[in-house]
Specification:
- With 205 residues, this protein is an alpha+beta fold.
- The chain has one domain.
- The chain contains 6 helices and 7 strands, in the order αβαββαααββββα.
- Strands 1-4-5-6-7 form a 5-stranded antiparallel beta sheet. Strands 2-3 form a two-stranded antiparallel ribbon.
- Strand 5 and strand 6 form a beta hairpin.
- It is globular.
- It starts with a helix and ends in a 9-residue tail after the last helix.
């Protein structure tokens, strides 16, 4: 069975080599991994590689206020909104990670002496967190985007997958990558095309 999974992964990687592909909107992703309909007080996150472990969690009212604090001063531009969004995503990951035991997750599926998450886990969790922030009215310059997957030996190891947001006035798409940073660090938010072309990670604020 393990050999079959490895072979399947290799075939998928070869199919995706040299390109990035959309795999549906984020609501489709949430449904596919059974993490749909999140609410601040009750939602699921993924862990243990490929979302093999779905963990029920939630935020207290005080924690949810802390997550939303970066939006207290309403962003006046798309760049300011991306900056606030990245900080809000960082905060929610820290809170949830400490509650679920994933606060030892290192960059690139590494581990800081404990549990780890792969890019699928991180992508799904970002999709959940984006839904929470969108429902709260914090996406004014953007809308939820896609699940985007890139191919062979790009962005380290086989394939890599992320969630994205789309700037509403220009249509520019930005990937959100928390897999490539250590737990508690600000996620990368960068132009999808540059990300797919293996440009250095950055934060387009």
């Amino acid at each position: 069975m393990l050999g079959l999974r490895i072979l399947s992964g290799a075939v998928c990687a070869l199919i995706l080599a040299g390109c990035d592909v959309q795999q549906g909107g984020l609501e489709v992703t949430r449904q596919a991994y059974s993490v749909q309909n999140p609410r601040p007080e009750a939602f699921f996150i993924c862990g243990d590689y490929g979302c093999r472990n779905r963990v029920a969690t939630g935020l207290t009212q005080a924690e949810w206020r802390h997550v939303q604090q970066p939006f207290r001063t309403r962003p006046r531009s798309a760049g300011q909104e991306r900056r606030a969004l990245a900080e809000a995503l960082r905060r929610i990951e820290v809170i949830v990670g400490k509650k679920t035991g994933y606060d030892t997750d290192g960059a690139y599926s590494g581990t800081l002496n404990g549990e780890s998450q792969d890019c699928v886990d991180e992508m799904v969790n970002t999709a959940v967190f984006l839904a929470l922030l969108d429902q709260a009215g914090h996406l004014r310059f953007h809308r939820q985007g896609q699940r985007v997957t890139i191919g062979l030996m790009t962005r380290r190891f086989w394939t890599h997958t992320v969630s994205s947001i789309i700037q509403t006035d220009t249509g520019q798409e930005f990937i959100i990558d928390s897999w490539a940073v250590n737990f508690g660090d600000l996620p990368y938010v960068m132009d999808r095309t540059d990300w797919a072309n293996n440009a250095a990670f950055r934060r387009d604020f």
